[in-house]
Amino acid sequence: MLIFDRLERLVEDKGISKAFIASKLGKSRSLLIDWKKQKSQPTQEDLIVVADILSTTVEYLTGQTDIKEKPISNTGDELSTLDKQLMNAMLGLSDDQKRFLLAQIEVTLKQEQ
Questions:
Q1: Are 57 and 67 in contact, with CB atoms under 8 Å apart?
Q2: Which residues contact 84 (CB under 8 A, 6 or more apart)?
Q3: What is the mean pLDDT of the segment spanning 48-57?
Q4: What does the pLDDT look like over 6-35, one tens digit per residue?
Q5: Fewer CB within 10 Å of terminal CB in the chain, N or C?
Q6: Rounded to the nearest 10 degrees, how much is the dihedral formed by the CA atoms of 75, 59, 45, 25?
């Protein structure tokens, strides 16, 4: 669920208009009003685009964390969209599922060496 207050604060802090965000989403400004009134919710793709525009994370926008800043990869570059999608997909996993997935990744990496 989008925490609209966070979106509004970031929009104000960054000096970006809601109309600009709507245009980047390819949608009308009324969509953001619907989000505010909770008549509709943004899609995961919408959240990713909005987070990128506002230099924050989907997790911050949805209230899963209080950390506003985007994470930086170990190369010093921002995470790719695919990296963000993978991270978002892992948010709902249990610790056991995360351990299993990590073990699968490690096996895959060893096979590539």
A1: yes
A2: 48, 51, 57, 58
A3: 91
A4: 999 999 988 888 888 998 999 998 989 999
A5: C
A6: -100
